[in-house]
Structure formats: structure tokens, C-alpha cells
Specification:
- About 50% of the residues lie in helices and about 10% in strands.
- The chain has one domain (about 15-105).
- The protein is mainly alpha-helical and about 110 residues long.
- A two-stranded parallel sheet has the order 1-2.
Length: about 110
């Protein structure tokens, strides 16, 4: 594996949009290196993986329908709707707190593609 060092020069008008899988270390590095000049987006694929796991608890009798509905809501920008459903079930399902943590810094902003 090759390592590349890259210097990025940002002025105070530059904003970055960084896409990733939602791992906490990515958020930490963005905060450390770019502070308020960067927005972090979790990609649709990884967001769907989180929702698929949550669907088994949130709606075990029809988890595939719940997943599709939640994905559609995310694509329509109804982030808070999905997050509120996750919060309702978080404790009873022992869901990872990371799934709901995304709301604190708007990490569940998803492309509608």
C-alpha cells in the first residue's frame, strides 16, 4: 500500500464536503483538521446498512418494508422523521448509539441519488 502526503491549502471561504461510512474516527479527523470548514455526509450505502440492522428491531414483522420506507424518507430529506424512529427504539434494541449520534452534527444528510 502506498502512502501519499498531500497538502491542502484552504482559505477562509473554502468549504469541504467529505463523504464516508460514518466511522467516528472520520468525524474526529474532520473536526481536528478542518473544524467548521467541512461537512461530513454518510453515504447512502452505509446509511442503508445501519438502517437495515435497525429495521430488524424497529419493525421485526416487516423489516424490509420499514427499511425501504426509511430509505425513501432519507432521500426525500426527512432525516428527523427517521432519526425519531431510531430514537424511540434505541434503548429497547440496544442499538449502537452511533446510529442516533449522527443527528448531533447533521451526519445523515444523504444524496438523493
Amino acid at each position: 500500500m502506498k502512502t501519499m502526503n498531500m497538502e491542502v491549502i484552504l482559505d477562509d471561504k473554502t468549504n469541504l464536503h467529505i463523504v464516508g461510512d460514518g466511522a467516528p474516527w472520520i468525524e474526529e479527523q474532520i473536526e481536528k483538521n478542518f473544524r467548521d470548514q467541512a461537512n461530513f455526509l454518510i453515504d447512502f450505502y452505509h446509511m442503508s446498512q445501519y438502517l437495515a440492522e435497525a429495521s430488524k428491531c424497529c419493525c421485526p414483522e416487516s423489516h424490509k418494508d420499514w427499511l425501504r420506507s426509511s430509505q425513501a424518507s432519507m432521500k426525500e430529506g426527512k432525516v428527523e422523521k427517521v432519526l425519531s424512529l431510531l430514537k424511540i427504539h434505541q434503548e429497547e434494541c440496544s442499538m449502537e448509539k452511533d446510529m442516533v449520534h449522527f443527528s448531533s452534527k447533521n451526519l445523515l444528510t444523504i444524496f438523493a441519488q
